[in-house]
Amino acid sequence: MPRYELALILKAMQRPETAAAVRRTVETLMERGAVVRNMENLGERLLPYKMTKHNERHSRGTYFLVDFYCAPSILDGLLNQLHRDVDVVRPTVLKKEEQEPKSSCCAKSN
Questions:
Q1: Which one of 5, 23, 87, 109 has the fewest CB atoms closer than 10 angstroms to its CB?
Q2: CA terminus-to-terminus distance, the chain
Q3: Residue 49 domain-assigned (yes or no)
Q4: What is the model's pTM?
Q5: Residue 106 domain-assigned?
Q6: What GO biological process, any one, is recorded here (predicted)?
């Protein structure tokens, strides 16, 4: 399965509501067969510009990164589900390239 990263912006909410939205998102991933590797909370920040989603204007949001493996066929349904979630301002899925082992770029000289 390919590796993906979900960059997720949630609307600014209190901690319990934010936790519930993140849990809902991760459960949606796992229900569809994804394997979640890591999740990182990047905190609440000002959005780069005001965004309108579900008839609400947002100027602040909480940013999360979710690293996961899944079949490419489930991505469309996943994004459709996330776009319908009223707490999600912007979901973006990016394909992550597998890291190659570090090697020396120059040959050893004697």
A1: 109
A2: 43
A3: yes
A4: 0.82
A5: no
A6: translation
